[in-house]
Each structure stands twice: as C-alpha cells, then as structure tokens.
C-alpha cells in the first residue's frame, strides 16, 4: 500500500474508521521497528494530542498536521509493505483507542504527559531539551507542553488562534 492511497482512503472513510486508519499508519511509519511498548507510546502521544484539540479534532487532522508526524514528513509514495508490521500497527492502534476511550484515571499510560517524541537517528528538534518522560528503544518521549483535554466545543479554534 502506498501512503498517498491510504491517506486518500482515510479521507473518504466514515468515522471512527478513518481515525483508526490514520493512527495505524502513524504507528507503522513512526515505530514499526520498535517494541510493542514503543509503538503504544507513539499511539498514546497522538491520542493525547487529539484530546487536546491543538492539532485538530480528528486523529487524521492530528497526524497530518504539518511536520508533526511521519505521514507529512515522508514521501507520499512511501510503501507500507511489511504486512506483519502493518498488522501489529493496526492491533496496537485499535487497542490504544480502546484504552484512551476510558476515563483518564482508568487508562493505562506508558508515557504520562508526553506531548512529543523524537527518533534519535532522525530528528534533533528545538524542543529536544524539554522534560523527558521516557526513553523507549530509539525514541525519547517528552513533555514540551502540558496538554489538557478539550473542555468545550470551540476549544480547537481557540487553541489554533493561540498557536498562531
């Protein structure tokens, strides 16, 4: 499967299927070579960002926000051709969504409060010295900013204006 085709498919799928596809794709692209725990941590960061509303309302908006996750960083022609890794990414994404649907106090969190992560071999972002939550495999998970779940319907518009 080619990334551009997957993102097109996500654009026409109904919710929540589209978001599950976008999260699965992100887990695959960002962490297919990582442990299950590392893949779950990547999914958790994306879900926490979705919860905040700062990067969009839907998971697809969050993971396709400019230069935030692999779907906007790698070539649209990138092929997702490791069937075993894809299957695991889908399972992890669906499990992460189920876990994240629980009330906050009942969720299992692997990287509590982490709003960002970086792969050491690829990135050296300006926020790399933020509070380190965990290091799992070759990814470091950081709390660059405290993210809180949206409290009202207009939160993302307000956040977008503040992010400006």
UniProtKB/TrEMBL annotation:
Residues 34-141 form the Cell wall hydrolase SleB domain. InterPro entries: Cell_wall_hydrolase_SleB (IPR011105), SleB_dom1 (IPR042047). Pfam families: Hydrolase_2 (PF07486). Transmembrane segments: none annotated. The keyword DNA damage does not apply. The keyword Hydrolase applies. GO terms for molecular function: hydrolase activity. Signal peptide: none annotated. Keywords: Hydrolase. This is Cell wall hydrolase.
């Amino acid at each position: 499967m080619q990334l551009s085709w997957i993102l097109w498919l996500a654009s026409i799928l109904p919710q929540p299927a589209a978001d599950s596809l976008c999260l699965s794709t992100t887990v695959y692209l960002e962490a297919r070579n990582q442990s299950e725990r590392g893949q779950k941590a990547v999914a958790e960061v994306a879900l926490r960002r979705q919860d905040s509303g700062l990067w969009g309302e839907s998971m697809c908006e969050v993971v396709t926000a400019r230069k935030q996750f692999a779907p906007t960083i790698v070539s649209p022609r990138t092929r997702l051709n490791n069937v075993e890794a894809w299957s695991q990414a889908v399972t992890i994404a669906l499990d992460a969504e189920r876990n994240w649907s629980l009330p906050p106090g009942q969720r299992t969190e692997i990287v509590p409060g982490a709003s960002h992560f970086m792969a050491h071999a690829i990135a050296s972002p300006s926020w790399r010295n933020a509070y380190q939550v965990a290091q799992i495999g070759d990814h470091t998970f950081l709390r660059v900013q405290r993210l809180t779940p949206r409290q009202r319907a207009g939160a993302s518009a307000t956040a977008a204006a503040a992010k400006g």
